[in-house]
Design a protein that fits this description.
The complex is a heterodimer of chains A (113) and B (110). Chain A has one domain: Immunoglobulin-like. Chain A contains no helices and 11 strands. In chain A, strands 2, 4, 5, 9, 10 and 11 form a 6-stranded mixed sheet that branches. In chain A, strand 9 and strand 10 form a beta hairpin. The N and C termini of chain A lie far apart (41 Å). Chain B is 0% helix and 52% strand. In chain B, the strands form 2 sheets. In chain B, strands 2, 4, 5, 6, 9, 10 and 11 form a 7-stranded mixed sheet that branches. In chain B, strands 1-3-8-7 form a 4-stranded antiparallel sheet, with no helix packed on it. Chain B is built from no helices and 11 strands. Classes of the chains: A mainly beta (113), B mainly beta (110). Chains A and B meet through strand 9 and strand 10 of A and strand 5 and strand 10 of B.
């Protein structure tokens, strides 16, 4: 069964304190791993898609990396506006054969000024 | 990427009633997806909606409870029928796998 586990559930950092969020996955043939940011009361905002082990993508203070079993979202020198829930999802195949996303439960990140 | 407008943004409903959620996309898309996000849980796919064909439902979700319409390539609705407090969740739509999501509908059933 396709499964995504994110850790930690919650993380509190001081402004400027770098850290990493983890996303471990099991899926039959990875077609894509997605990272999102979700603010309270809003839908997920797409950040990155990674397709193969060794791939890296960056956006401002965020960098996502991928191995065969997990992905990391590295946050460098975060600011309070980076506070949000970060979601990880893998592209999987539904029972109908169509593509779908399987999500982790998210990491709630708080950056204190 | 296409922009999705979703409404209502929130609602409080009586048990036993139904609520229809609408998603409007600003361009034509082939596939639309409906997800549920229960409190403290991850997003779970309810069903996939293609224009011109019946929606396909994931395990644990049935058409009688969550009927979906897809009348054209820019619009879809999800109805939550005969609601109970367990249906209290955030409901989200997206298209083309998941690059853009609607803003979500926060449903509370009392």
């Amino acid at each position: 069964e396709d499964q995504v586990t994110q850790s930690p559930e919650a993380l509190r950092l001081q402004e400027g304190e770098s850290s990493s969020l983890n996303c471990s996955y099991t899926v039959s043939g990875l077609r894509g791993l997605f990272w999102y940011r979700q603010d309270p009361g809003k839908g997920p905002e797409f950040l990155f898609t990674l397709y193969s082990a060794g791939e890296e993508k960056e956006k401002e203070r965020l960098k996502a990396t991928l191995t065969k079993k997990e992905s990391f979202l590295h946050i460098t020198a975060p600011k309070p506006e980076d506070s949000a829930t970060y979601l990880c999802a893998v592209q999987a195949r539904s029972v109908w054969g169509a593509q779908k996303l399987v999500f982790g439960q998210g990491t709630r990140l708080t950056i204190n000024p | 990427s296409a922009v999705i407008s979703q409404k209502p943004s929130r609602d409080i409903c009586q048990r036993g009633t139904s609520l229809t959620i609408q998603c409007q996309v600003d361009s034509q898309v082939t596939m639309m997806f409906w997800y549920r996000q229960q409190p403290g849980q991850s997003l779970t796919l309810i069903a996939t909606a293609n224009q011109g064909s019946e929606a396909t439902y994931e395990s644990g979700f049935v058409i009688d409870k969550f009927p979906i319409s897809r009348p054209n390539l820019t619009f879809s609705t999800l109805t939550v029928s005969n609601m109970s407090p367990e249906d209290s969740s955030i409901y989200l739509c997206t298209h083309s796998l998941g690059y853009t999501f609607g803003s979500g509908t926060r449903l509370t059933v009392v």
